[in-house]
Every structure is written in structure tokens, then in C-alpha cells.
Amino acid sequence: MMDYPLLLTNFMQHAAKYYPGKEIVSVYATGTFRYTYADWYKRTSQLAGALRAFGLQKGDRVASFSLNNHRHLELYFGVPCMGGVLHTLNIRLSVEHLVYIINHAEDRILFIDEDVYFLIEPFKDQLKTVELYVILSQSGVMPQTTLSPVVLYDDWIKGYPEDYDFPVDRDENDPCLICYTSATTGDPKGVVYSHRGLVLHSFSTGFTMGIQEKDCALHIVPMFHANAWGAPFVCTLCGMKQVLPGRQILDMASLCRIIAEEKVTFSCGVPTIWIMLHNYLEQGGAHDFSCVNNFFSGGSALPRHLIESFEKKYGVILSQGYGATETSPVVTLSIPKSYMQKLGTDEKIDIRTTAGLPVPGLDVKLISLETGKEARMDGKDMGEILVRGPWIAGEYYKNPQQSAVTFKDRWFHTGDIGIMNPEGYLTLVDRTKDLIKSAGEWISSIDLENAIMGFSGVLEAAVISLPDVKWQERPLACVVPRPEAAKTITKEDIQNYLKDKVAKWWIPDEIVFLQELPKTSVGKFDKKKLRATVLPEVLKNRDKA
Amino acid sequence: MMDYPLLLTNFMQHAAKYYPGKEIVSVYATGTFRYTYADWYKRTSQLAGALRAFGLQKGDRVASFSLNNHRHLELYFGVPCMGGVLHTLNIRLSVEHLVYIINHAEDRILFIDEDVYFLIEPFKDQLKTVELYVILSQSGVMPQTTLSPVVLYDDWIKGYPEDYDFPVDRDENDPCLICYTSATTGDPKGVVYSHRGLVLHSFSTGFTMGIQEKDCALHIVPMFHANAWGAPFVCTLCGMKQVLPGRQILDMASLCRIIAEEKVTFSCGVPTIWIMLHNYLEQGGAHDFSCVNNFFSGGSALPRHLIESFEKKYGVILSQGYGATETSPVVTLSIPKSYMQKLGTDEKIDIRTTAGLPVPGLDVKLISLETGKEARMDGKDMGEILVRGPWIAGEYYKNPQQSAVTFKDRWFHTGDIGIMNPEGYLTLVDRTKDLIKSAGEWISSIDLENAIMGFSGVLEAAVISLPDVKWQERPLACVVPRPEAAKTITKEDIQNYLKDKVAKWWIPDEIVFLQELPKTSVGKFDKKKLRATVLPEVLKNRDKA
């Protein structure tokens, strides 16, 4: 066969040539912007021309600091297809981490959403490699900013030809994007994605999800979270209508309006979004989901009751996926097999409560914590999840020390503990470091959190380990009550509720009520922070008692 | 990203691990055989063990001479995944070509269907490299044969372990199958498929066709025709039920029974099959197509009236594909885009009358015969179809001379003439060598054939070029009448019928009636043979007149 490389360029040009009239929709606070793949390709070509004129060399990094909008989608293809590498910055990172990763990646240009440029200003002097700031502006007005030199994106790209000669004779292993993991310990670690990896990830996930050109995607998951889970690439691959909601992702009424007006058929998002959306619906929020086929959730496990309520009360299928920044990110998807379709609704929800089945193209195995051998697919045997495949990272960017720990024996060691049932569906038990060992038995902090969150008076719950002389470790529950229950809820209410939900020795002796839970930049419970703040208080009080 | 190879091994093991209970069904004259992917994997492992014990080295070729059955599906994966190369022999090839390609490929083992072993016997002494004959036998009885040494497949593989240690640390560009083109001129040319090429072909075509694990495939297209168009690989990739119909493909009543009983949802086949099936239906043949989503046709263009009749009378969607042995084979698929769904039935049939839209992952362009430049996508500008991509051959096996002609400038020059409409749908006009140039204007032999086959009294028609002093070339139509019209049909009937169907100067002056048309080993009209037999007769008669 020909030595022909797998490049995102093929996706972009396929869409522009065969689906030139299909729409890309970008929603701003000031109104909705629409254009076609043909126009998008022209502007992406102009962007490539501007990058070349700037002097961007093959492999050079430029960074985006932006929400989901049409200019960000131009960067997603224009930068990698002309030869550069797009570094997507999580806008919720701490200043310390932002400075570290921009300097570590040696980003030459920063493309900044006009809504958030002021977040960069305070630390601009610490950025050692940035030569130019480009404002992604829908208003067309240059903000009063101390960033310098600074230009407006549209001014910067205009004047370049609308058909760039994107190279196709290049290495498919060339880097195209880079994303840093949200470090819970140590410095953030960079994961470099290749054209080859993202092309294959798109084919496998698109095929498995059964999405098609006729679908319409709403990109809720931020484009700075592991390539927006690859969705913009799959959608472009098949010439699908794409909707980019910008800041509207935190406004559930707007989100529901967009879904209904644009006839959205699927969307990907973290549990935080689905919990917010569910609260909005429970309060009688207006919505019309008749066009929706499927919502996909990932990042952390969804509570079962949420999946159930979405399906039974609002007629929407919520499926889950599992993955990590290191895995491009999709590893598994919780789609029932055809012969499971005859199961009852509750049994199908059981399946969608799991993290799902590995997608084709990957190898997944579980290594028992006890024996070090491969765990059985019996729905009971626990093990650390190991993954390998063409869209799985083999190292961290310029970080041999962490790479050696995480990518041993040519497998990615996820640090997640799972069990796999005989059908191959994976259930996440915990992070290796969050699992609680009480009197020699494992307690899954995630399972216990989900059980607690099943109680009507509870909004959110996180469980961490409490050192214990007698039992080695005991679970400590940090609970945020629902507003209406805040004044009345007691520790005993929760303990009583759990009695027939979990094993007796899982029931936490210590329950702390908080007004909110600290979250990481990707919306997960920040247990590191809980251990640093709540745990000392509890230990102090226990010592007093 | 990890350096992890794309191998068919992943498809096989994914199906065995995650869909162990899904069925593979193989239909024999003596009854239907059923087993599961789990059992198939065990036997495929045993086959690999037997091949290793035989001494098959990496890259060594073995050949299959067989219809579609479950042992052939074991060969499809067992041979390539253990490191060998499967050479699929077209059982309809001439002795001369069979001897040539077996010797040219240096096949070490011949796996032969028990129904056709006697076809090999007459020329066994001319096979220079075959060390062993293995009979694929469902009866379990060794036939009385002069082939030697000879064993029964099931006896040969039994006793080997049911879990072979298939290598995964190997080059994805390793050859896995080889197929020779049915040569219309010169010796047959070998096309070597790689693991990488077939994995990517599977992802792109499966994704585009929208097929899923819930589907059920009936493999009508022979497994010796360009990898059965890749269908066995796509189906295994998603753990789909597969039905292998063996000799039943020429018996329309059996085929219809299998479709209904096994709940077949899609099938791929050449026009000959769909014409036969249509005749069977028109004669009131029993059928139940309620389970069928789509039939796919390829190899040569389907007459429009057939697509129309299948849809309007029998409720079945017939879609077309275009490709060649050199292209793994799918290049285009005639699936309407989502916004075309609102079109009327006839307009959608217009779309499915084309060869279709290029599948993602390939580059397709048309080079004008007149200007040598890229043809416009305007539905009028004709050009030779050039293709490149990861599942397109870059050369012929050990044939530098033909390779240099066909694979110039890193594009595959198909020798087919096409036009592309503004939506990207390709219509085949003709083979470069079959196009007729009359008074400086092109006549498509294919279009003219389809017009003639639209006449009720005509079963089949092939058009070739007739040298002409005045017009340079004129079309000569070779027509097979339907049995009921054989005695009454006249040249004038057809000429009158064509009057409002084609341009006046397209209407053939010469029409010859034949009892049947010669066909190539892949079922296409053999125009080479018509030129050698019919043309001299016509010229002789013309000279006399």
C-alpha cells in the first residue's frame, strides 16, 4: 500500500470539499454567528498564511486560552495542518500552573478569548517565550490591555490567501496538539498528540458511537480538555453540523434553548454540567430534547440516579465514557450491545452506569493490586487499569522522570482501579491513591460518594481517607446539603439512609457538612485540597473529644 | 503517542474478548453450521499453530481456493495474524492464470474447498512451490483426489492450542493478503494488502456505511474478490453476526431464505447477483426483506431501472460503491447526504445511480483527458479518476513494469473515466479504453449499455467500438434478449426505443443479438473477448454489404 500519512488535513479538506454548505454555529453573548465549512476552510487557510508569515516553524508551539467558539475551531485545524502545534490552555488553571506550562511548552503566540484576556495580564511578564498576543474577538474592538504586542485575530489573518497549500507529504507522527494534565501532585505534565493518534481516535470513537453526518454536535466539554474529547475532529471528519456554545455552557436556560433551536443530537460534557442541567430541569426549566439521541458524560463517574432520572423523567439517554488526557481521551464507552436491547430499562441503565466497553483499536487490561497478575473479567476482581494503543501517550513532554513512572513496559498505567464484568464493561472503583483500606478490606470512595449523593438532601459528597488506629483507615464524608435541607440535615440522617445501601462497615463515622466542595480545573472534586483543609480539622476535633 | 501498530489481530481479539457469544453462520448444501466468535478464535488459533508447525515463515504465502465459508474466515485472520500472507484465488480464473499466479506468488500451501478440488487436479504438476494441499471439508470425508500430499483441514489443525500467542510487536505495513487483478490484458497483477491498509479501510468504510454491531452481514461477494470488499474485517471489528452463504449465492431462493431466517441487514454483491435476484423476484420468488437496511453493489455500474425497481417494488435500498482490487477496494459510496433526505424518491435514486462520494481518508481527483488538468466538479467535465490514500496500492507485486505505468506520481491511475457533480458524487463514464470517440465527441459505452438494458425485451447489453471511416468510431451493441422476446426483437425496436433516451448520434447502427455475453472471472462483460469474436464478424459482413 502507498506510504500515505494519516493527517487531520484530510478531515479538514474532506469536509470543505464534500460538505461545503454544512454549518458551523458559534454562540456569543452578543448573538449567534453562523458560517459554512467552505468559509471556515477559507479562514483556516488565512490563519495558516498568517502563521507562516509570522515565521512559525514546523513543530513550534502556539497556545489558545479560550472557550469554545469558531475561531478556536480554526486554530484546532489551522495550526496543526500548517505544521505547528496548538497548546490548549485550561482557563481555570492557577496562575502558577499557567506560567509553568506556557514556559515549559515554549509557546510563541497566545491566542486569547476577548472574554478572558484580563486573566493573562497579571503574569504576562513571567512568560518567557511569548512573542505575540492575538485576541479572538467577536466584537471587533481591541480591548484596553497591557498585553503587547497585541493584534485582533480577524485583522491579523485577513489579506492572506483563502486556499493554503497545506503539506500532505509529512510524517503522521508529527505533533499537532499539546495538553497538560491538571496536576493533583507536582507540576502539570504535557501530553503531545499526533496527527496519527487523533485520526485513529476519531475513526474508532465515531464508529463506536454511531454518529454520522446527519447528527448535530453541541461541544459542551471545553476545547482545552483533552481535545474536547476529540469531538471536533470526528464531526469535521463526517461533515457534521457543529455548535460551539462559548460562555453559554454554564447557563442552563441558554444551553436548552441552543439544543432545541439548533436541533442538537448529541453532546459531551462532564458530570458537573449534567448535574447542573438536572437541577435546572427539576426546577421546571424550559427544554425540548426531542432532537437529542444521546448525551455523553466523562471525567468522573455519574451517579446512577442521575442517569435514571434523565432517562425516565426527561427521555434522554446519558452514556458514559472513560479516559484521560493521556488517552486522547476515549478508552471506553457505555453503549449496550445489541442483544442487551431486550433488557428492561433498569438493566440498561445498569450498563450505562458502568464506564463502558473498550473501543476497538486499544488493548485494555486490569492488573490486580493483590497478585500483580491480570484480573479476571468476573465483575469482582479489582485491578489497576492499563491501556495501550495508537492514541495512547507513550511519554510526557520533556519529563523523563514522570514518564518512567507512568509508562512502564509500554503500557499507560492509569492510576485508576477498575473491575470488568464478563461482558467487558469496566466499572471504576477508585483512584489508586483514593481507595480506602479499612481492616484489610477495600472501600471505594467513589461508590460511597454516589451512595451518599443518592440521598435526597445531598447535593454533592466527596469521601477521603481518615487515619484510624484500630481500622488503619476509615472513610470521611464531606457533604454539601441541598439548600432546602441545609438547616435540617444531620449526620444520622445520612448514616440511616446508607444502612441498606452499602456494607455496614462502609458507613462513615465522620461526616462533615460544607457549603461547597473544592474542585479541580477540570471540575473534579479536589481531594488533595480536602485532605489539606478538612482533614486536619477533623483530626483536631477527634483528638479533643 | 505510543508506537503501536495497526493489526487485524486487534480486530480478531476484540471480537473474541468482547463479543464471544455472537454468531458466525456458514451455510452448506448439507445444512447450516453455526458457531461463536469464541469458538472461531479457538480454531483460528489452532490454524495458526498448524501453520507454525508446518514451518510457515513471516511473509510466506499460502493460497485459498474457496467459496465463502467459516474455514475461509479462519484463514482470513489466522494466516495474516500469525505472520503469513493469504493469497485468495479466484475459482473462476482460467487454468493459465491460476498456474501463473500460484507460481508467481510462490504459494506454499493450497487450502481448497471440497466442492472445487477437482478444478486443481488437472494442472497440479505445473505448480512449482506448493508443498501441501489442505481440503476445507464440511463432510469430513477425504475426497478421492490425485492431489498430494493432502490433508483435511480439521484434522490438520486439531491438537494445536486454542490460544495462540499472536505477535503484536510487528510492523503494521507487513503484508497480510494478496489478490491478483483479473487481467484483461497481459498477465494478472498482484496487489499486496497490509494490516495497516485493511484496518484503516475497515474504520473508514464501516463508519461511512453506518454499520454497527447490531447489524447482520451476508457475504455474497466472494472472499476471493478484493477481500470480499473488506466486509469480513469490518464485521469482525464490531463483533457483528456474519453469514457465509457458500454455494448458495447462485440460488436466489436459498439466498432469500437465508436473508429472512438469519435476519440479514446488509449485503454486498456484484450487479450480476442483483440482476439475478431481481429476475427471481419478478417471477414471483418468495422473499421477506423486512430485516434488510441496505444492499450494496459494486464492480460495475447498476442500471437505474434496477435500483428503482428494488426500491419501489421490493422496498430495498440498493447503494453502490466504486473501487478496484488496487483500492482494498472501497473508494466511493453512493449514500445520500442528510440534507438530501428531503428529496423525492426519484431524486434519491438519482444519487444512488452514481458511484458515490469518496469515503474519508482518501484523496480523489479527476484529470481531464483533453487538458491534462484537474477536472471541474460540475457534473460535466470528464477525467480519468486518480486515487491516493493509506489503503491504495503503491505498486504491483514483483512487477515494476506495470507498476510504473499505473502508479505514476504516487497516485493510482484507475483507467476509469468519471465525472463529479458539485456535491462530490462520482459517475463512471467508461474505461479509458472502452470510451468511443465518434466525430470528435465521446460516447460512454456504459451509459449506452444501461440505456439499452432499460428496454423491456433486453436482458444484457455490451457496447464496443466499431472502426468507421467517416466517424472514426461508431458504437456496436451486443445484445442478449430476454427469453420471451428472443424470437421477436429487432434492431429497429431498440433503435426506436433509444430515440428519446440518448443523443441521436449515440444510437448504434449495428446491433448484434447473442445468446449470452462473455464475462470475466469477476462477472464483468468481457469486451476483450467481444472484440476478438463479434467484431471481426461484423466487419466481414459490412465489407460484404
SSE arrangement:
2 copies of one chain form a homodimer.
Chain A: H1 8-18, E1 23-28, E2 31-36, H2 37-54, E3 61-65, H3 70-82, E4 85-88, H4 95-105, E5 109-113, E6 132-136, E7 150-152, H5 153-157, E8 175-180, E9 190-194, H6 195-209, E10 216-219, H7 231-237, E11 241-244, H8 252-262, E12 266-269, H9 271-282, E13 294-297, H10 304-314, E14 318-323, E15 330-333, H11 345-353, E16 357-358, E17 363-367, E18 382-388, H12 400-406, E19 412-420, E20 426-431, E21 436-438, E22 441-443, H13 445-453, E23 458-468, E24 472-481, H14 491-498, E25 510-513, H15 527-544
Parallel strand pairs in A: 1-11, 3-4, 3-5, 4-8, 5-6, 6-7, 10-11, 10-12, 12-13, 13-14, 24-25
Antiparallel strand pairs in A: 1-2, 8-9, 14-15, 15-16, 17-18, 18-19, 19-20, 21-22, 23-24
Helix pairs in contact in A: 1-2, 2-3, 6-7, 9-10
